Amino acid sequence: MERSLIKVLMLEDVPADVELTSDALRRAGLVMEIHHVSNESDYRSALQSWQPDLILGDYTLPQYDGLSALLLRRELAPDVPFVFVTGSLGEERAVETLRMGATDYVLKQNLARLPVVVLRALAESDAMRDQRRMQQELDHERQLLRAVLNTTGALIVVLDHGGRITRLNPAAESAIGQTQEAVAGLDYWNLFAAEEEREGLRQQFAQLDADGHREAGGQSPWRTTLDGCRAILWSAGRLQRLGSESEYVVLAGIDVTEQEKAEQQAYFLRHYDSVTGLPNRELLQHRLQRATPKREPDQLALVLIGIERLAEVRDSMGIATCNQLLREASRRLQSWQQAGDWLAKVGENSFALMLEVQDEGELPRQLQRMLDQLRQPYRLDQREFFLPAYLGATLHSVGGDPMASVQAAEAALHRAVFDQASGFQLYRAILSDEAHERLILEGQLHEALQGAGQLELHYQPQASLASGRIVAVEALVRWRHPTRGLIPPAQFIPLAEASGLIIALGERVLHTACQQAADWQRAGLPAITMAVNLASAQWAQPGALVATVRSALSSSGLEPQWLELELTESTSMHAPTTTIEVMKQLRKMGVHLSIDDFGTGYCNLSYLKRFPVDKLKIDRSFVSDITNDPDDLAISRTVAAMAHQLGLEVVAEGVETEGQLALLAEAGCDLIQGFLFSRPLPPDACASMMADRATLPPWRKEREQQTLLLLDDEQHVLAALRRLLRSGSYCVLTTSSPTEAFELLATHEVGVILADQRMPELSGTEFLNRVKDMYPATVRMILSGYTDLKTVTEAINHGAIYKFLTKPWDDEQLLAAVAEAFIKYELDKDRHG
Q1: Is residue 105 classed exposed, middle or buried when 0-12, 13-18 and 19+ CB atoms within 10 A define those classes?
Q2: In Å, how far are 284, 425, 493 from 417, measured between CA atoms?
Q3: Are the C-beta atoms of residues 155 and 253 closer than 8 Å to each other?
Q4: Which of 169, 385, 394, 616 is 20–30 Å from 197 (CA)?
Q5: Burial status of residue 327 (CB atoms within 10 A of its CB: 0-12, 13-18, 19 or more)
Q6: pLDDT tens digits, residue range 242-264?
Q7: Is 359 strand, coil or helix?
Q8: Are the beta carbons of 616 and 592 closer than 8 angstroms?
C-alpha cells in the first residue's frame, strides 16, 4: 500500500531527540506527519483518536516506560508497528521487546539505520494487513459458498413417482409459507401452481408414472404461477433411491418474476426516455403512423422543442441538475398534451409534441404561449436558471410519412435557433431551400478563409474611466461578401461554428489583429491592448491554441503584453481544469486574459478565483437596462466589487447612453466599450481616433443645488409646474417619459421626484418603486388626479412614496411639500451616505 503521508506517533521525552529522529527520516525522503507525546495519558489518547501508521518510542522515560507503551499498543492498536528508538538497549532487553511484539529497535547513535527500519516495518505491516484481508476474504467466500449450497434461492422440491412431496428446501418452504413436515405427502401441483394450471400438471405426472423412461415434467421446462403474482420456471431430474429401484423426481424452480419485469423494462428502455419517462423518437414515429385528430375537421401539428444551455448546466453543475431541469421542462410541456402519449423526448435536449389545431392560423398563437411558458425561469435548489427555448412546427397529414414530418419540424427548429428572433418557426418548403442556401454560404465562407480581401477586422475602442482615453480595442471580424455585401457576424459566426470553420476563422482573426496592433505601434500610435475573442472550439484544443498564439506573436512582432485573449464565461466552464492549465501557459508567455459575457453562464466562483485572468467583462444584457432595472444595477455593482476583491479590472460592454456610463462608473467599472464612445471602426478610422487622442464625454453626475425631477405625460402640466417651481432656488428637470427620467436620474443628483401616477409607459408607483431600490435617498412623491387607493397605500407602506398629492394642486401646499421633501432628502442623504 502506497502512503503519500506517514502518520508517526513519537513517544519521547527529549525534544532534541525528537528533532534528530525527524530529521533522519525527512532526509531519507519520507513525508511524515509527526505527533509527539511524552507521557502515558497523551500516548493513550493519540492511539485512540489519531490512528498512527507507525510508533517510535524511547525505552526509558521519566514517567513511563517503553514496555508498558508496547503493551498498551497491543491492546489499543495491535496492527500498528512499534519501533524502539533508544539510547541503549542490552541484548536481553532487545530480545524481550521483540518477544513482546516490538517490530524492531534502533539505537539513537545509529539513526542512519532508522529510515530502512521504518520502511521495512511499514512494508511488513502492510503485508500482514493484506494477508489478514485475504484470509478474511477466503473465509467469507467459504461461508458464502456454504450458504449458497445450503440456502439456495432456487426452489428445490423432491417428489415420489406419483408427484407427492417428500422434501423441500428452505426457499421452497418460504415460497408456500409451510414447513416440509406440514406438506409431506401432498401433491406438488396443489401447492406450487395456480388453480387453472393444476389439471395439466397432474396429467403430466400421471404420464410420468406410466412411462418410467420419460423425462420428468416433459421435454422442456414449464412455468407455474405462485400466489397469483410470482412466476416460477421449473425443470426436473431423477435421483435413484438408495437401496431401491424407484426414483425420486427432483424439481428445481427459479423465480423468473424479475426476469419478466426486466424484459418489460428492456422494452421500456428501447421505447422510452429514462430521465423523463416519455416516449422516445422511435415510439413517436410509430405512433405518428396511427395518429388521427380526435375532432373533425381539426388538423395535427408536430412541434419540436429545443432547450438550450443544458450542456453548460451539465458541465458546470453536474448531470443530476441537468436531469432535474429536463424533467421540469417535460412537466411544463405535459400541460399541453391533448391525449395520452402525444409528448415525446426525441433528442438529448429536445422534445416533440403533437397538437390538435382547428386551422393553421391558430398554431402561431399556441406556439407563442408555449414558448412564453418554457422561457419562464426554472427554480431549482433556491437558484434560477434561464434556458432559452425554440420551437419548430409542421402540419402532419393523417397517414403521412412520419419521418418526413419529423424532418420538416427539425428544419423549422433549426431555422428558429438560427434566427433567434421570434423563437419559433413554421415549416415552409422554403426552409429546405434555406438549408441548401446555408450549405452554399458555408462553401463560400470556406473560400473566403482561403483567400484575402473578404474577411476584415473592425476595432471597437475601450476607454478608461480614470483617464477617458483609449487603452484597448477589441477586434471584431466582418465578412464583406463579393455579391451580398457586408454579412453580419450573427449570420456567419454560427455558420462557422456549426461547420467546423471557426478554428480557421479564429486563427485568421488572431494573426490579423496581432499584425495590426504591431503596425500601429510602428507607425508611432500609442501602444494599446489588442483584445481578441477566442471561440470555445479553440479552447477545446489547448495545444493548438498555445501554438497559434505563439505563432501570431512571433510573425507580427507584437509584444505579448499588448495581447489580451477573451473567453466567454460558459466556455471557461466546459473543462475548467484544462482551461486553467492553458491559461497558465498563456500567462507564462506574457499574454493577458479576460472573461467575456460575465454573468450569463454558470461560472463556479471557486474556479473563478483560480483563473489567471486580468479582467471581467460585464455582459451587455446587464448594461442595456442598468438605468431602469434595479436588479441589473445591483448585479453590475456586485460583479465590480467582486472583481476588484480578486484584483481584476472590470469592463462594461454595450454602453450606449450617458446614464449607463455614469452608473457603471459609480458601480466601479474601470473601462467601457460601446456606441456611446465609438462603434467598431475600420483600421484607418480607428487609427485616426487614436491619433486624435479621443476621450470619453464627461460622465460625472451634475450636482446642482436642490435638483427636482418632474415626470408627467401631459405637457401642459409640466409647463405649469415648471413656472411654479422656478420661482424657488431649484434646478428643475422635466420629462414625459419614465425611460428618460431614469436617464436623468443617472446623470444628475436628483433630490426630489414629483411623478404622475397614470402614464402609458409605466405607472408612477411602479416607477418610484424602482427608484427606491436604485436611489434610496431621493424623496419620491406622486402628483396625480387619479387615485388608486390600494396601489398608492401599498407603495407608501413599503416606503416607495413619501407623499401623495392630488391634482389640481394648491400652489402653496405644493411648494411647502417640495421644500419639506428637500429637507428630508438632506437628512436621508447623510444616512444613506
Answers
A1: buried
A2: 23, 9, 13
A3: yes
A4: 169
A5: middle
A6: 555 567 788 888 888 888 777 77
A7: coil
A8: no
| Cell 418460504, located at residue | 174
For residue 453, what are the CA distances in angstroms to 73, 449, 551, 720? Answer: 83, 10, 22, 61
Average pLDDT, the chain: 83
Side by side, the strands of the sheet bearing 350-357 are 343-347, 350-357, 299-307, 389-396, 424-426
- At 808, give phi and psi (nearest 5°): -70, 150
Residue 132 is placed in which grid cell? 489478514
- Residues forming a β-bridge with 681: 459
pLDDT of the residue at 572: 58
State the pLDDT at residue 308.
85
Q: Which residues contact 102 (CB under 8 A, 6 or more apart)?
A: 70, 82, 83, 84
pLDDT, one tens digit per residue, over 101-126 is 888 888 888 888 889 988 888 888 88
Closest CA to 272 of 255, 286, 260, 293: 286
Give the pLDDT band (50/70/90) at residue 357.
confident
Measured from the Cβ of residue 49, the count of other Cβ atoms closer than 10 Å reads: 7
Q: Can you say how many angstroms the Cα of residue 166 is from the centroid of all Cα atoms in its chain?
A: 63
For 17, phi and psi rounded to 5 degrees? -70, -35
Contacts 24+ apart (CB under 8 A), 713-721: 713/737, 713/756, 713/759, 713/760, 713/761, 714/756, 717/756, 717/807, 721/754, 721/783
In degrees, rounded to 5, the angle at the alpha carbon of residue 121 between the alpha carbons of residues 120 and 124 is 85
Which string of b and e fits 127-157 if b means at least 16 CB within 10 Å?
Answer: eeeeeeeeeeeeeeeeeeeeeeeeeeeebeb
Residue 560 has pLDDT above 90, yes or no: yes
Q: Sign of dihedral through CA atoms 447, 450, 456, 461?
A: positive
Q: Which residue has the cell 452608473?
A: 663
Dihedral sign from CA coordinates of 176, 177, 180, 185 = negative
DSSP-assigned letter for residue 195: H
What's the rounded Cα separation, in Å, for the pair 764 and 224? 78
Tallying the residues shown for the chain, one arrives at: 833
Omega within 30 of 0 (cis) for the link into 808 = yes
What is the SS3 assignment for 225? strand
Q: Specify burial of residue 179 (Cβ count, 10 A radius: 0-12, 13-18, 19+).
A: exposed
CA geometry: angle 147, 148, 151, nearest 5 deg? 70
Q: Which of 30-39, 176-185, 593-602 has the lowest mean pLDDT?
A: 593-602
Judged against a pLDDT cut of 70, whether residue 399 lies above it is answered with no
**Which is higher by pLDDT, 454 or 291?**
454
Q: Residue 512: which residues within 8 A CB-CB, separation 6 or more?
A: 457, 475
Residue 808 C-alpha from the chain's centroid: 57
According to DSSP, the residues that pair with 263 across neighbouring strands are none
